[in-house]
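During the reporting period the student researcher (J.K.) took over the structure-prediction task from the postdoctoral fellow and processed the backlog of single-chain submissions. One of the processed entries is reproduced below for the supervisory committee.
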Amino acid sequence: MTFVFTAVRAVFLFIIVTGIKNLQHASGHWCFSVKKTELKNKIYPVMAFLIFIIIWETVVRVANTPEYRLPAPTAILEEFAKSWKILLGHTGVTLLETSFGFIAGVAVAVAVAILIDSSNMIERIFMPFAILSQTIPLVALAPLLAIWFGFGILPKIILVILVVFFPVTVNLVQGFKSIDNNLYEMMLGMKATKWQIFTKLKVPGSLPFLFSGLKISAAYAVMGAVISEWTGASKGLGIYMTRAMSSFKTAALFADIIIISLLSILLFKAIGYLERKFITWK
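J.K. obtained the following structure tokens:
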């Protein structure tokens, strides 16, 4: 009997050890496959971009295209190397305008969204004006802001606020309305206060909507600052762009556009990082 028990226990332990080894092997193989897939997803876009740059450089060189029409990538790099101090100064001004405008725009949007959520009457009164504000082109609005508030930093910040305000407000209001009705009824049944419902249910439930609005705003905030600089500024990527266009310095124009794109991408990525930190359950 003891012998049988020992044999069964040995077989049982063998099965467990073998299963663990197979599981570790499968897990390691799965992790390797995942890492390999992630690496491919990162390498392919880089390879495509490098191929595009090589084709661009080759076509410009072979066709002997004038630089004022289409500069080669190497000419753009030379412009970066030659004018990096000037570009850095203009970038700092635009980044300052974008940062102040983005933060202020988000703060105003959150406050307005909370007001709209608190009263249907406020929503009916306010939303038509919010929609109307988005029908006015930024290029037409920027000169008006310059006339009303001068050529300093204030009209630039106001334009960025207008760009940021609408997507964040609309998405956040939609998030407040998309809460789970069962949870809402349960909290009402437990005699929860409005503040408790707001902080424990509405705020966590609306975070994905909020960050969706922030991502949309991040993609356009830098452009709002640049457009406002077109109408009058002493420094900034927008005024640098107009000067490059008027003097047919196309390589400088491309360098300016690249910096604007990088700033927008960095802001978008920063919002994505914050989203992963705040929304841990996704």
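The committee noted the following: The chain has two domains: 1-64, 73-278.
J.K. will present the remaining backlog at the next meeting.
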